[in-house]
Amino acid sequence: MNLPNCPKCNSEYTYEDGLLLVCPECAHEWSADESQNDVDELVVKDANGNLLADGDTVTVIKDLKVKGSSQALKQGTKVKGIRLVDGDHNIDCKIDGFGAMQLKSEFVKKI
């Protein structure tokens, strides 16, 4: 049986593990149905492991220093209508009093 290459790293050494296909080089797992669609969705999780989606409302879980500002983003700040992006800071948002900024998902929790 000819298995598809990994959608993340394009490795040809994929193998089946139950219902999933697994890449031994980058440890990416996906279902055989996904490989037929070739859709690569961005998966972003909050500090508690909950999946985040565009438009969600999150809360900041610790005080964060804001580069270029003397103020800090305080714990408990509510952020509405987030947008997920690829990269190190994977949340784009607008915060009242601060404006547009990017946050890391590990410092927020979903409401």
From TrEMBL:
InterPro entries from the UniProt entry: YjdM, YjdM_C, YjdM_N
Residue stretches making up the Protein YjdM C-terminal domain: 44-110
- One of the Pfam families matching this protein, by short name: Zn_Ribbon_YjdM
- Which PANTHER family does the record match to this protein? PROTEIN YJDM, PROTEIN YJDM-RELATED
Going by the entry's taxonomy, the superkingdom of the source organism is recorded as Bacteria
How is this protein named in the record? Protein YjdM
Chain ranges of the Protein YjdM N-terminal domain = 3-31
